[in-house]
Amino acid sequence: MPDYELEQLQINEGYTMVAGIDEAGRGPLAGPVSAAAVILPPGFTHPLLDDSKKLTEKRRELLYTELTEREDVIWGHSYAEVDEIESINILHATHAAMVRATLSLKPAPDFCLIDGLPVKNFPIKSDGIVKGDGKSLSIAAASIIAKVSRDRLMVQYAEKYPEYGFERHKGYGTKLHLDALRAHGPCPIHRRTFAPIAQLLQ
Question: What Enzyme Commission number does this protein have (predicted)?
């Protein structure tokens, strides 16, 4: 289970506002990538908070509500939409969304723990934490906000484009999704530069 140790190490170094940052939706064939940044109160503990991928949808929803409604939790969120992903590629779009989510935090963090590899030219001093959503409570909280925000949006897209089943697979390349793509072709929220769709369009 993640804990507050990585955050505390930075606080011991003199930083006062340590944010955790994570994303959801780098792999899907449709929809935006979602990024969140979270500053938890000092010494934060939680018996159920974990990497969003290890939790049920119901548990994620409950934790999302708890985190976003707590007055002592500072959080920000941003999407990189499909046109941005197509324009600058998924990695750069993910990093851009992370930066926007982080810069929206008030007060601003003075150190960031980012899930994954270090992000070059990040505007605030930061460190990359591989599999950080399973180690840092701040990153785990960010993973939940990023994931739930994106899942809710994909359910809304399912109402607009019902033939693709977005409410079920959230844009990932499942058999159901690939079959729908072959039957109907891509819609406006599909990532046309991603291999399965690019091949289909050829």
Answer: 3.1.26.4
Q: Could you report the per-residue pLDDT of 101-146, keeping only the tens digit for each?
A: 999 999 999 999 999 999 999 999 999 999 999 999 999 999 999 9
* Contact present, 169 and 158 (Cβ < 8 Å): no
Burial pattern 129-138, b for ≥16 Cβ within 10 A else e, equals: beebbbbbbb
Question: Are the beta carbons of 97 and 79 closer than 8 angstroms?
Answer: yes
The CA-to-CA distance between both ends of the chain, in Å, stands at: 45
Domain count of the fold of the chain: 1
Residue numbers in the known binding site for a divalent metal cation are 22-23, 115
**CATH code (residue 89):** 3.30.420.10
User: Which residue ranges make up the annotated binding site?
Assistant: 22-23, 115
